[in-house]
Records
---
Amino acid sequence: MNRQIFIFSVIVLILAVGLWGFVWPEGQSFSSQKDDLNIWQDNLTKMKELKSKLSDLTALYQNQEKAGELEKIFSALPQKDDIPGLLVNLEALASKNGLIIKNVNFTEEAQKGKSANDNSGGATPENSSSLSISSVKGLLTTLVLSGDYSSFLNFLRSAETSLRLMDVEALSFQQANNILGDGLSVSSDFSVNLKVYYR
């Protein structure tokens, strides 16, 4: 009887040790996988937070970039027509390209939808922080320049890249009387109509 109990106890012990030897590694592997899963979940949460912050920073940067571009555009538009400064600028462009200004005329562009009586009811507030396309005004400028054709082309290129925003609306030229053998005149008079913008 005692022998049977001993044999049974040995068998139970062997089974218990074998079962423990099988369950223990599996338990350790499960525990390790659970830890890895927790780490991956933490990393995923952090990545989502970083993605959200990146989206916020991108939106902020784009808004600041747009505001900066708009500010650059309007920095080229003075608060008023600044005719003396414009005249100096045009004289510098002409002189730089070998042209002589023979005549210049400035005319205020008529505001669309406004009459002379609209401005009599008080001054227009100047708010430099509220920049809008509707606040842009135009000064019509007519120039008569004297020089050769290549110099005139260089003048137009320089006007295109000038700090002051301006558009060439019309141009014409008249050749001088003295003609060279190849049929080109020594100098010509060029008439240019510019629209110069300001706020």
---
Amino acid sequence: MVETPITKDCLLEVSDGIACLTMNRHDVRNALTGTAIVDDIVTVVDWINQHTEVSVLLITGNGTAFSSGGNLKDMRDKVGDFAGDPASLQKKYQRGIQRMTLAMDRLAVPAIAVVNGAAIGAGFDLVNMCDLRIASDLAKFGETFINLGLIPGDGGAWLLQRVIGYQKAAELTFTGKVIDADTALNYGILLKIVPADDLLSDAYLLAKEIASKPNYAIRATKRLMKTAQVENIAEHLKLCAHEQSLCHQQPDHQKAVLALIEQLNLKK
């Protein structure tokens, strides 16, 4: 049994190469400010990156919301993450919620957002930080910062257009409207919609399919997928050659080749 890190406001379960992180502050709709959820996400990401036993990360929420994003009462009262002058607020964003964005960007394994309910503001951005996204038919999504006279301070303007393209991202960001799961599926935000009662079990099926693949190749492919977003093709091919040379040295590669040869009856 792998010893897991201590988390405060999230629950972490690890089995069969799958880590499931459940935001566990239903009392504040799993808000990302005023809680330890961001700290927990950063801790778990850094732990996964050091433990090759893990091949997939699921992120979900406990209760009726995935995450409501920023704590509105703290905004109203100008306390916690929202207290101080512009200079101190800038530092709080950089030392606070932006740490989550950077952690998810350096996560070494595929992440699946398992959206059980409303994902609003920074909660929606957390969904878009994941590689794959499935949702309950009860889920709702909103890039709602503009409604509060704010901008996506956690990087949402960078994230959303890379998921659905500039024009649709501009629509959601400039209007601040909230969309349902069907619309999110149509926009390309979601991979699929699952009945609420089946959501987590369905997510585990997808995670198990990924976790069944050779772990080194999973992590190497994740690196390639991320770097391909910013590299030109020549740079990308150079990294491909490097990673592939290492894949060929992995025991899982040789095992998989031998299994396929046997399956196809190519022994001769």
---
Amino acid sequence: MKKFLFLLLFLSSFLVQAQSYLPKSTGVVIKKSYYTFSYDEANEQAKWVYYELDPKFTNGKAKRHNDFRPDRSVRTGSATLADYRSSGYDRGHLCPAAAMKLNPKAMSETFFMSNMSPQSPDFNRGIWKDLEAIVRDWVRNERRLYVVTGPIFKDNKGKIGKSGVTIPGYYFKVIYDPTDKEKMIALILPNKKCSKSLSSYVVPVDKVEALTGINFFPQLADSKENSLEAKSNAASWTWKANKHRHSASSKTTKSSSSVFNSSKTNKSGKHRCRAITKKGTQCKRNARSGSNFCTQHAVL
């Protein structure tokens, strides 16, 4: 019984602490167990997602199950799987699944559609995946990080689905490291294939605030907040995980919607699904009418 009460106290203290640096902006704020977000109904996705990281999150054993699903906690209705189907865009995580390995619940909650944003496959499986990997490296070294990430609705690329999900032109990530020598860093990346090094996308936090209207880490004393936000310096962070860059875009996996093959019409007048399976071969099923993919791969 004592162990159970201790666990409850630990979880309660964690949840309170995890919300201690929430950004300030307009929009409906929704709290999950291990991250919080502000939902932007006009664009059918989160305006920002906030989460705390320490090594137990990234070193956990929870497995990924790809249980994408609408988020019923969004009263106006979140985006759906159908919105992304055959759109040509990935369901890009804002709070990364790989950073939420603490337990099955933490992992599963990252697959709510409210945590997704339409990302170019070259971006999602390339530099965005690399950035997520390097943040995991940072938290193992720095012990604790507070992260805010989200879309920047500038130079948008249109909308997808019946819900009208906006395809953002850019994405941001802002990180506060409170340990040892405090520091912050911010990055802005275009929603497309990126060929530059990750460190070249570092910008002052103030620039992200100007583009998004979000006030990051307002709980800090003004003097400290202003100083840290003005000193978003790439040289203050290690970039060894940059070796991962673009490795994802060269691999073919079913779970990442595959690399698409050319679509050829068979004798029946139908054409084969363009997805590539885990074995590296083209799917043998016929594509659905009006789509380049079969029923199974159309939702990936």
---
Amino acid sequence: MRARRPKHAVLIIDVVRSTALADRLRPALLSRLRSLSRLHLAARRIRLPYVVTAGDEFQTLASAPGQVPIGIGGIAGRVMAPVNLLSGEAFILARGALESVHDSTSHRFEALTALRANTPGFDTIANTVYGLHDTLVQNISEKQWQTINAYLKTKRVDLTARALGVNLSTVSRNLKRGYLRQLEETVATMTEFMNRSFPDCT
């Protein structure tokens, strides 16, 4: 009896509105990805450093399906850096998912995230939940993002208010209008759902 090949979670990211950045994009992206790779590898969010695969696109292997991969499937051969030299079902599915984000006819709304795993029911549920999540994300203002990012560092409203130089009610209002609790609940629920759906994902 043949052993089942493990599934892997491939993440391919395309920088939104990258044409506006033009020539400045690649050096800035490479620099940012080096520091993000160190942080995310240390936090065990990813398994391999991020690699730029096109001018405004980069990819990696997520450490688990709950890290919001966009393609879940097998990988041909041994898993090793650099990630852009790997191939297999997971990469094909991730590429198809990314193309569906760019294809305005694939969704009835503007999507930022798409997942594919060729698993009955999973793709539909995951993409519906992340479609709702993306709708919320696109309606968050710059001020609300600033408050959310500051809050995520401290996890305390009073320290966030002090860091931003605003009062407590402003922080609370920005977190509420920035849908922080809904976003956190989505991530927690989808992480559990993905881990249950793909317990053999390495």
